Amino acid sequence: MISLLLASCQSGAIDGGPPASCGDAVCSAEETCSSCASDCGGCPTGCGDGACAANETCTSCAADCGLCPDLCGDGSCDAFEHCSTCEADCGTCPDTPVTVTRGPYLQSGSSSSVVIRWRSDPDTDSVVAYGDDPSSLTNVAKSSTTTGEHAVRIEGLAPDTRYYYAIGSSTAPLVGANDEHFFNTAPPTGAARPTRIWVLGDSGTANDNARSVRDAYRSFTGSRGTDLWMMLGDNAYSDGTDAEYQDAVFDMYPDTLRNVVLWPTLGNHDGHSAESATQTGPYYDIFTLPTAAEAGGVPSGTEAYYAFDYGNVHFVCLDSYDSDPAPDGPMMTWMENDLAATTQPWIVAFWHHPPYSKGSHDSDSEGRLEDMREFALPILESYGVDLVLSGHSHSYERTMLLNGHYGPSNTLTDPMMIDSGDGREGGNGAYLKPGSTTEGAVYIVAGSSGKTSSAPLDHPAMYISLVELGSVVLDVDDARLEATFLDDAGSAQDSFTIRKD
Amino acid sequence: MGWPICVTMFLAVLVPASVALGHGDVHERIAELTEEIEQSPGNAALYVRRGSLYGLDESWAQALADYESAGRIDPSSADIDFLKAKVLVELEENERAVALLDSFLSSEPEHADGYLIRARAHVAQGHIDEATDDYARAIALFERPAPRYYLERARALIEAGRVDDALLGLREAVSDLGPLASVIELAVEEEEKRGRYEGALRWADLLSPTLRQSPRWRAIAGNLADRAGQASRAEHEYREGLAAIDALPPARQGTQAMVALRAELAGRLQTLAPSPSTQLASAFPAGLVRQGLALAILVALGILVIRVRK
């Protein structure tokens, strides 16, 4: 396009007729061969004369007009050719411009692949161009299916690498090809890398609460960036509809969505409009989650529950709302096999309904909370889970280092509290889980990223309970995991460390 | 004015495991709807919404009453029959449920959930053939059937004593969904119960390499091989299982599950009938065996040289 514009300038074509001085036998500054042949002489013609004439193009005369971008005229509408720059290959531009109405957002990232999703209006085919330089996206992944809901899986990526990308269709690049559109692939599985994880729970209010929590985290993390982020359910109030997801997720976190892979779990409000058994409804339509161990772990066969690896951390996501939690049911059977097969030093599990809470929900009297505690925890703890994250109660509640507490709150005994200290290196000391001692996990309720609800907050397993808006930041670095509860003003209201060295 | 009934039906019918709720607690929402119903007693959608809330609360009798009220107001709605049938299954009134679903499915022959609910009603009545047909239709109609449907059908068939049919269904699950642990574990369990250890091992071998080579499945495969009378294969599996545990990082080796598995594998190895190679290995440390063999070869060569010279 640029070369075409330059060519038209060089030809000296000027609208509005010849200059007034034309005919005085002097070829003055404002006169050219094309505007005043009588003073300046006729313009040279023919390819190779150094001027890209009106009847010449980059395809017919590259010598005068320059090379066509992306080989315009080769019969193939390549990644960055489109109707406005190469009608010869891409056809006439449609009257209605294509716009991106959602995203782009990143899903199911691994050390070698990622899924890039977006929504367009109208429907088009899907093209993603990517590469290590935003000005030269040399690789292309595409899907010829015409759709408004685009999902392009890119494979064969190098681990631990930043890729820039642009999305669009075969007729128009839409957004990207700049330093704001990038993703980082995960490190090789098992490799210890400093990893920052942002955890939001019950964030789906789409209001100033959610915005303040978001902004507090942005200020906190600054240029450090985020390696992955998680939503612990109730991601879009009140019913998890597509419109509610637009407000509460896509319009709320556009920057993070386009740069960092999001890993969600189903909350009860998301479940109002989605069904796990059939993987239908907005939640399942919006998210592309691994079913066949695309990002590590063991295949689950469903997006309702899944596993993935990032560096030296193994993540397990369960569906506490709409999948059978029975110990011999498919979800728990899968989880046990997944945990039995992982070789990762760290295990972090997450789901919506907390096994321990005296927040706006009571784990002593609510079935789903009790089921998860009684059925999931024995399996997880036997395989050495380190951290369990959930939401549902609109508060922050964090346990001591626990093991073997599967009954109601009044059955908690001293031996179940592996370490009843604060877990702070500047306080009672970090929670220790060296290889010789693998027992103990910390359980966090982090359901205050969109709203708070007053509650008793008196579960005896908790080291700290707060009715504060906020989110959780996890930093994993080799044998050390540090968790921070960051309130909506950016203050760290709680922190603890687990060490395995 | 309540929600249009079509919206209510969308949320209540397409999302059978869940209910369209506002922010409030179920009981609060029921109370709100009760007030709305008092204001608009002729609004079927309100009854459907409240019925769905009662369903979430597992108050099945009240849910049924609301759906019946909705059905009286809007007798032409087939969707209400479906909702009633679901509740009837919960109330174990399976015959009535099947009758309603027969009628519903004749007008909605592509309704996967309808077949699924009718399959469950058939199972409850012991009509396994009818149930199997309905499960098959449901699975075929669901765009992305979950593992749970295949497992539910298999368990119903196993309960009815038709284990081979159950296993065929599990093969279909593997074909449709891949070699899922939950599916294969049930198949292995059933083959093992019937003493078909070779068959069980073949199922185990379908697992992804990551899982098949995990210590847990090495132990399972070792036990199956042992029972199949394949002592050397069992020994191999147990040894590989122990090696897999040794290869884990310390954080994984020391878990309760791995400690128990290590003890099991070591115990099984000890109780195995020793194979000739095991006997040799246990009689002599490996280094000594190698040195002995080298010495024997040297002696043999020496004798050969002496004979040739003679």
Helix content of chain B: over 70%
Q: Return the structural class of chain A.
A: alpha/beta
Q: Radius of gyration of chain A in whole Å, from Cα? A: 29 Å
- Helix share bin of chain A: 10-25%
Determine the mean pLDDT of chain B: 85
Tally of helical segments of chain A: 10
Distance between the termini of chain A: 58 Å
Description:
The complex is a heterodimer of chains A (about 500) and B (about 300). With about 500 residues, chain A is of the alpha/beta class. Chain A has ten helices and 22 strands. In chain A, helix 9 packs parallel to helix 10 (about 365-380). The radius of gyration of chain A is 29 Å and the shape is elongated. Chain A starts with a helix and ends with a strand. Residues about 1-20 of chain A have low confidence and may be disordered. Chain B has helices at about 5-15, 25-40, 45-55, 60-75, 80-90, 95-105, 110-125, 130-140, 145-160, 165-175, 180-195, 195-205, 210, 215-225, 230-245, 250-255, 255-270, 275-285, 285-310. In chain B, helix 5 (about 80-90) packs parallel to helix 7 (about 110-125) and helix 9 (about 145-160) packs parallel to helix 11 (about 180-195). In chain B, about 75% of the residues lie in helices and about 0% in strands. Chain B has about 300 residues and is mainly α. Chain B is built from 19 helices and no strands. Classes of the chains: A alpha/beta (about 500), B mainly alpha (about 300). Chains A and B meet through helix 9 of A and helix 9, helix 11, helix 14, helix 16 and helix 17 of B.
SSE topology sketch:
The complex is a heterodimer of chains A (501) and B (310).
Chain A (H helix, E strand, L loop, with lengths): L1 H9 L26 H4 L21 H4 L21 H4 L8 E9 L6 E18 L7 E16 L7 E8 L2 E5 L5 E3 L10 E6 L7 H14 L6 E4 L10 H9 L3 H6 L1 E4 L17 H5 L19 E5 L2 E5 L12 H12 L4 E5 L16 H16 L4 E4 L5 E4 L1 E2 L14 E3 L11 E2 L9 E5 L15 E5 L3 E8 L2 E8 L4 E8 L2
Parallel strand pairs in A: 7-8, 8-9, 11-12, 12-13, 13-18, 17-22
Antiparallel strand pairs in A: 1-2, 2-3, 2-4, 4-5, 4-6, 7-20, 10-11, 14-18, 14-19, 15-16, 20-21, 21-22
Helix pairs in contact in A: 9-10
Chain B lengths: L4 H9 L12 H14 L4 H13 L3 H14 L4 H13 L3 H14 L4 H14 L2 H14 L5 H13 L3 H15 L3 H13 L3 H8 L4 H4 L2 H13 L3 H16 L3 H4 L2 H16 L4 H8 L2 H24 L1
Helix pairs in contact in B: 1-3, 2-3, 3-4, 4-5, 5-6, 5-7, 6-7, 7-8, 8-9, 9-10, 9-11, 10-11, 11-12, 12-14, 14-15, 14-17, 15-17
